[in-house]
Amino acid sequence: MCVLFLFHSFTWQLFRHTSRKQQFLTNRCISHHVKLTAKGLEYGRQLGMASIQQKLKSIKVPDMSGKQRVSPIGKVKYSLSNMKIVNVGLPTSSVDLVPGTGVKLSIANAFISLHGNWRVKYLRIIKDSGSFDLNVKGLTIATSIAVKSDETGRPTVSSVSCAATVGSASIKFHGGASWLYNLFKKFLDKALRNALQKKICPLVADAVNDLNPHLKTLNVVAKVDQYAEIEYSMVSSPTVSQASIDLSLKGEFYNIGKHQEAPFSPTAFSLPPQNSNMLYIGMSAYSVNSAAFVYNKAGALSLYITDDMIPKSSPIRLNTRTFGTFIPQISKRFPGLMMKLLVETVKTPVITFVPKNVTTQASCTVTAYAIQPNTTLSPLFILNLETSVSGQVFVSGMRVAGAVSLNEMGLTLRTSYVGEFQVRSLDSILQLVLKAVVIPKLNVQLAKGYPLPAIGKMKLVNTQLQILKDYMLIGTDVQFTR
């Protein structure tokens, strides 16, 4: 039907090509921009610290043993075993954007507490043992994280450099003679700190890499229905500036199994310099226009309307008696018959985004049939129907939903099988059909919405949507739940 395509229109998507020819297509068709702000990075830092802290708690310090000469006792054999991390603190951390590269994560004033057992043997026969606690303070970690896209068009992160230093350490021994403290303090303090220092950066790299399985949960292909699917993938690696991480995306609907580009290009746009939300998503009118192209090409923008779809309270019925009031020859030639209307688009509808409004212009035909007793259809006339529809768009949970209303319509006669008649006399009937049948049916579907791309169990909060010139802008914060 004339406005049915709007049901398939409110969503966003990403697409990536890798060859030079394909890259030309993606550059031509970039219609989405996503901006991750400093506020979003700060939320990511908070989540990342919890992961890094858990990783550092899992540090495995190998057992140590050796011999040292201690005056006047002589050689002392020693061993440290069962060393475990009992506490990790990361009180100070920050995340900064590195233009052109990625993200730098810095951790300062961190501390690690370790507990273990000690054992010594000296003078060949004397043995002693006990436990110890090691507290390391002044731990600093600095790692650079690259943000790119993988071969599937999903985001990926990796640690490209890391430096860790361990500050002061204090050891408290439980049991044993006092001279043992000096032995361990002198020879083992540094060894323990070095062992910890070597473990930190690999674990930080593991924590960064652990993000990738979550990033891979982004659906790169999402089936909409039997006609269309959406691809969610990055066009290229992100652009990192001093203020944000920006993604250039391609937004387009495709017929299932046949990814034919729409025969038009998106209008270039850029996101406004807003930063109060964690995430901004700019979705151009290209996406909804590509949806119209896909569904029109599939022949899905059509609807048969029968009398049982008209409200029972309406005095206007879809039968030859009602239409005969306006076109007498219909009731004369086809007395006492029910009728059926077929509303379908004749070309791809055009959607325009202007500030605070989405407007659609659609050209359709309305074919009227008389239903014969043997159920065959006798054509009566074909009308040209031009409509203008306004749409409202909103975010509901993780979906973009909408509603539409009829602005205006115009009728002209295309073909008549019952002779000439005044087309304007049918205005009231067609307005009833659109307002009472087509629009409500459409709004029920639009209210279901279309899912936005999500990573893991992502939830949008504090979300606002604006309709701007040639695109709509979603500003939102994000929460991840387990």
UniProtKB/TrEMBL annotation:
Disulfide bonds join 162-201. Its main location: secreted. One of its GO terms (cellular component) is extracellular space. GO terms for molecular function: lipid binding. Residues 35-258 form the Lipid-binding serum glycoprotein N-terminal domain. Keywords: Antibiotic, Antimicrobial, Disulfide bond, Glycoprotein, Immunity, Innate immunity, Secreted, Signal. InterPro entries: Bactericidal_perm-incr_a/b_dom (IPR017943), BPI/LBP (IPR030675), BPI/LBP/Plunc (IPR032942), Lipid-bd_serum_glycop_C (IPR001124), Lipid-bd_serum_glycop_N (IPR017942). One of its GO terms (biological process) is defense response to Gram-negative bacterium. It comes from the Eukaryota. The N-terminal region may be exposed to the interior of the granule, whereas the C-terminal portion may be embedded in the membrane. During phagocytosis and degranulation, proteases may be released and activated and cleave BPI at the junction of the N- and C-terminal portions of the molecule, providing controlled release of the N-terminal antibacterial fragment when bacteria are ingested. Belongs to the BPI/LBP/Plunc superfamily. BPI/LBP family. Monomer. Homodimer; disulfide-linked. This is Bactericidal permeability-increasing protein. It comes from Pleuronectes platessa.
